[in-house]
Specification:
Strand content: under 5%
Shape: elongated
Number of strands: 0
Oligomer: single chain
Helix content: over 70%
Number of helices: 6
Distance between the termini: 18 Å
Amino acid sequence: MPQPTRNIAIFVSIMLLLTVATQSLYVATLSGVGIVEGWPLRSTIWTIELLLFTGISLASLVGLIRSSDMQWGWAALLISGLINILQSGIGLSMFLPAAKAGAEFAPLTGTLLAGSFLFYNLAKAILGLAALIFGLALFRNGNAIGRAVGLISMIAGAIAMALNIAAVHLGLGSVPFSGASGSVATLFAGCAIWLAASRSERLSTRQDDWR
């Protein structure tokens, strides 16, 4: 992995791990809280996530262009980031006005929620693909720890893909743990990318020492 691509990989892995942190904070603090009542914190978290996914998309695009391999992995991260930007934008721009519109607009609010979660689950499914691809690469080329993380990333990615594709097809709230499985896959995708970049940097340093 060339130096510029290693830097991009480390940046993306940090951004992915931060999205797991923000989503965990969201679940811990806002589960069961109404849209209006929890809006200050909810909108803050969504704004942060919007910026994180923008960074992931930009860096993944550069990684896709510069990398001589892993194009499918970088492409998956790029597309999932763009879909998450769309999903976050829907929440930030539409949820509060729809919630304040009153009970007579409840069907519209439900439609917005269903559409937003369709994009949410689709992005999680594609992130599962990224976790599978980067996990496979680490499993093939890593040390013992790398292979273990790579294997877990592959399994988590496959589960996230299956559950979230089912959720896209069946609709909002139809598949338990679909979102959680996507977060787990995101966590291990970030770890796999980080370990792959770190391993590449160590190998490069050893090669420089031999010269």
